[in-house]
Amino acid sequence: MRGVRSLETTHLPHWRRNIYLFLTSQFLSGITSMVVQYAIIWYLTKQTGSATVLSLATLLGMLPMVLLSPFAGPFVDRLNKKALLIVPDIVAAVFAIILSIAGTLQSTFPLWLIFISLLVRSIAQTFQMPTIQSILPTMVPTDELTRINGQLGMVQSANMIISPALGAFLFAIVPMNFLILVDVLGAIIGISLLTFVRIPEHPVIDEKVHVLADAKFGLMKLRNTRGLWAITMIGATFTLMFMPAASLYPLMTMGYFHGTVGQAGLIEVIYSVGMLAGGAIIGLFGNWRDRMKPIFWATVAMGITFGGSGFLPGNQTGFVWFVVLNALAGAMTPFYSTLLMAMIQQSFPADQLGRVLGVLNSLTSVAGPVGLIFAGPLADSIGVEKLFIIGGLGSLICGLAMWLLPSARAYDQQLQARLATEALAQPDLDD
Fold this sequence. Notes:
Protein name: MFS transporter
Number of helices: 19
Largest sheet: none
Order of helices and strands: HHHHHHHHHHHHHHHHHHH
Subcellular location: Cell membrane
Shape: globular
CATH architecture: Up-down Bundle
Helix content: over 70%
Pfam families: MFS_1 (PF07690)
Number of domains: 1
InterPro entries: MFS (IPR011701), MFS_dom (IPR020846), MFS_trans_sf (IPR036259)
CATH class: Mainly Alpha
Oligomer: single chain
Keywords: Cell membrane, Membrane, Transmembrane, Transmembrane helix, Transport
CATH topology: Growth Hormone, Chain: A
């Protein structure tokens, strides 16, 4: 199967034009989707002022990833990849139209309908994310995979930079019931561009889906990949330690540093600019012989910058340093997430990747809602800045564990040696 996968990626004609058209579709549709996402959260904040409502909205955005990812993987491996990208966009657009109509007919949007809309959007992303992750190895040559992942990270970071500013501008001048329809525009643009993108498929598409058996298959493949299993468990621990503070960035800015809403938005943009810079470095110079080294140092750097934020003075001088530390933390983030994803994509045959990614995404995401449950009470009892210190220490511990475990530390060296051996054997497989 590995020989078949290599043939499909390296012999795909005009692969560069094809992948950049795909990245363009993700960029344009991603901006519109995030603009609406920000607008909904700001609307909830303005209308309710309730931390409970905002926490529930955040949980609705995370739970489908945790609960459905293991079962989404089998469908990703078997169903048409292009359809898995297009259909969720159509469904999200339909719900946007329904929500817009409801907001037009009433003075306010029904809260239950907003929650349903957020849930549907999250379910759509649960299918789209592993689909994108699993098709990249089939669209580009193996030696370009890390660089293309870096460029995908740049696209996502650019969305995160542009969307808050554009969303704030539109939120101020466009009625909410019309602003929601931007999601429909994004779906039209994204689907139109995707029709011109060639996405290789696999024979496994015709096999029946056995959801539980396939989720178990993905889990067993991941567990049997010893070093990667250790890295996955460390990643889940990192999320558990990191998420409580990460969910309370606005409270850190406006409560601890006594800042404004504009400054809370500035932190989001600065972090995203840092991610864009980090993604650009990977996109340009992304072929490391041992990717575990930059992953380790990125984890340590995130721990230092994140934990250091908790020791800053609670005034505007402290906020200035908070901005600097977040720019550095943002720049380090792609070195962890992007390089790790490239390693995962190269570790399994393309026709198994969806099932593995579904389980992996669920395992690394399950700690998020757990952290969110404790975020509010902890912040109230010990102070939000202490959560940043805890998150920073957790990141340092996870980085140290990653380096001390031989199976994790040496994983990429062993992976690249295996890929080199398979590449040498490829002509024999073709014969």
